[in-house]
Every structure is written in structure tokens, then in C-alpha cells.
Amino acid sequence: MGRLAGKVAIATGAAGGLGLAGVRAMAAQGAHVVMMDVSSAVRERARELAAEGFEVVPYTGDVSVEEDVAGVVELAQRSYGRLDVLWNNAALLSPEWMLQDTDVLHVSRDHLMRTLEVNVGGVFLGSKHAVPVMAASGGGSIINTSSVQAAGGDLTLVSYGTSKAAIEHLTRSVATSYGHLGIRCNAVVPGLIAPPSSPAAAERPHRLEDIAPARLIRDSQMLDLPGDQADVANTVVFLASDESKFITGQLIRVDGGVTGHLPTLADRRRLAGAAPTPLKAGLG
Ligand SMILES: NC(=O)c1ccc[n+]([C@@H]2O[C@H](COP(=O)([O-])OP(=O)(O)OC[C@H]3O[C@@H](n4cnc5c(N)ncnc54)[C@H](O)[C@@H]3O)[C@@H](O)[C@H]2O)c1
Q1: CB-CB contact of 84 with 182 (8 Å)
Q2: Could you report the per-residue pLDDT of 40-73, keeping only the tens digit for each?
Q3: Domains located in the chain, CATH noted
Q4: Ligand 1 pocket check: which of 10, 18, 62, 87 to mutate, most ligand atoms within 8 Å of Cβ?
């Protein structure tokens, strides 16, 4: 018997990356998974997983569009009669998008608003539509994907960091409001997780792990090993399962220790070519 046998899950951002790895891990533990992504590639990925014997259903939709989110919850109910797990994982994260996301003076309002609409709006709408359905069958587990970028200020990625900080608040808010209905809500907080190398990845003009803030995160790890998709997927399986039945309102950091030590503003300033903060007279 798998650790998620009999459970019905929805995973968003499921066409690739961490989402796809997490879907595979949940399905391997016996979950029935509805895979949602704005990219129609989710259909092909679902066909591949189904061919391997996993119980998955694809759904093409945008997490920032309420009818799409209502539709995926409806599909889970129609296909499997219940909903136990919602993994709100979709986010705008292409290297091209992230390179435009610098600081308040240089980021457009449109960029900020679209980032919030997808990253935060998707978590909000997912929770809104999943909670009543989960409550009807005695509870469930909502898992949100945050990021180490939520943990502090930075000289860049202002929209992304703001969105992930909001997700962490939403996580605690949903946990607080619906715990009495048996609904748990936690966030998985990845550090830098590079996708497995592939010929297609090697040909991309920009790779996430090559963007300077990502390199700094890698250099700030306590552990001298790369984070991989299984590290996040294993945590998602744990939070989806009854093994975590007494855990709610928590941020589970899967980051090699990046957020466990003092900040690295000096590194950030060096990277931006800015002068270090002068020490106050008397301290130096
Ligand atoms: N990879 C990392 O190092 C890392 C680190 C910290 C946090 N994260 C978080 O992990 C999650 C997954 O990241 P990833 O690295 O797998 O990225 P990814 O770009 O490979 O996957 C994101 C998926 O979300 C989908 N998506 C984007 N907008 C959507 C929308 N409006 N509606 C539905 N789907 C949409 C994309 O099509 C894509 O398949 C994100 O929340 C990201 O912020 C990733």
C-alpha cells in the first residue's frame, strides 16, 4: 500500500519542473492526481505518466482565472468523487520573466501585478475552491510552494519575493481559518533546485541556475550538494500524507541550509557593484 493510497490530489504547475516531479512521486505512492498547467504540454506529460501505470488526469487552465480553478476542482470531484490534497505550485518563473524582475524603480507595475495575480492569486483561488470540497469529506491537506526569496529583502526579484512572502502569510491564514474543519495548510520552501540536465535545457538561452541571485543562493548553502527535484517531491508526499497529520501552518524549508544562517547583504551589494555600508565611527 502506498503512503497516499486512496487520496485524490490536484497539483498545479504540473507540466514540468518541480510540479511534474511531485506528481510522479505522489502517484507512485498511490494518489490519483489531477495535473493542472497553463501549458497544453500537461496533456502529453499526463499521457506519459498514464502509460507508466500512474493514475493521472490532465487539465489545461490558468490558476489566475477563477473559472479554470473551479473547473479543476470540479474535474477532481467528477473523476474521483473527492479531494484530499491541493498542491498550489504554479508560478511565473521562466528565466526571461525573472530577468525583468529587478527593483521597485525598474520593474513595471504590470510585471508586479501579473506576478501577484498568478503566484498569489492562484494560491488564493485554489484554497477558496478546494476548502469546501475537502471539508465535505472531513478535511485535507493544502500545500503551497514558496521560495527562500520570501525570507528577506533583496536587491532584485522584488515581485517574485513579494509574491512568495504573501504565499507564506496565506498559508498560515488558511491553516488558522480551516484547521477546525480538518484542513491542514503548509508551505514547502525550496532553495535552488536545478532541473535535471537535458539536451533541451542545455540549449536554452537563459537557465535559472545561471541567474546571479540563484548562484548566490547556491553559494550560501550549508550543505555542499545540489538540491534536486526529489528533495521537494519527498516533502510534498510527506505533507500530503497522514504522516504529517499534526503539522499545519508551517513553512518546511528544503534549501540546504540557505535560510539558517546570517544574511548575505554584503554579497548582494558586491554583486550589484555597490559600495559596502561604511561602518559607523567608533565601531571600526
Ligand atoms: N526551481 C527552483 O529552484 C525553485 C526554488 C524556489 C521555489 N520554486 C518554486 O517552485 C515552483 C515550481 O517551480 P519550477 O522550478 O518547477 O518552475 P517551472 O517554470 O519549471 O514550473 C512552473 C510551472 O507553472 C506553470 N504555470 C505558470 N503560470 C501558470 C498559470 N498561470 N497557471 C497554471 N500554470 C502555470 C508553467 O507552465 C510551468 O509548467 C514555483 O512555485 C517556484 O516559485 C522553485
Answers
A1: no
A2: 999 999 999 999 999 999 999 999 999 999 999 9
A3: 8-272 (3.40.50.720)
A4: 18
